[in-house]
Amino acid sequence: MGDAGKGEKIFKQRCSQCHTVEAGGKHKTGPNLHGLFGRKTGQAKNFSYTQANQSKGITWGEDTLFIYLENPKKYIPGTKMVFAGLKKKSERKDLIAYLKASTSS
């Protein structure tokens, strides 16, 4: 497991332009991430996903996010997410630790 404190900094620097994490948070360019863990791809309410995201059919968890966050366009070809990814394993682990803490009820 990573460091949620470091993950929060990564989220603010790399993700918060497009995503929110709080319950009831608004969608931006990307969907609100509250309730992410255990949710299938392309399922946040009232967000317009690509068919690629809707059809991927995986459930978000630490393992799937770890792969996805390295290279989103490789993991879900056709996604509209423009983020290039986090190549460093430690940064992905930290971000996942933060997301796990900040997006659960």
What report would you give on this structure?
The chain is mainly alpha-helical and 105 residues long. The chain has helices at 4-14, 51-56, 62-68, 72-75, 89-103. Helix 1 crosses helix 5. The protein is globular. The two termini are 19 Å apart. The mean pLDDT is 96.
Write the layout of secondary structure elements.
Elements: H1 4-14, H2 51-56, H3 62-68, H4 72-75, H5 89-103
What is the string of helix and strand elements? HHHHH
Helix count equals 5
Q: From the helix content, strand content and strand pairing, which structural class follows?
A: mainly alpha
Q: Poorly predicted ranges (pLDDT <50, ≥5 residues)?
A: none
Q: Please tally the β strands and state the result.
A: 0
Can you tag this structure with a few keywords?
single chain, 105 residues, mainly alpha, 5 helices
In short:
By secondary structure, the protein is mainly α. The protein contains five helices and no strands.
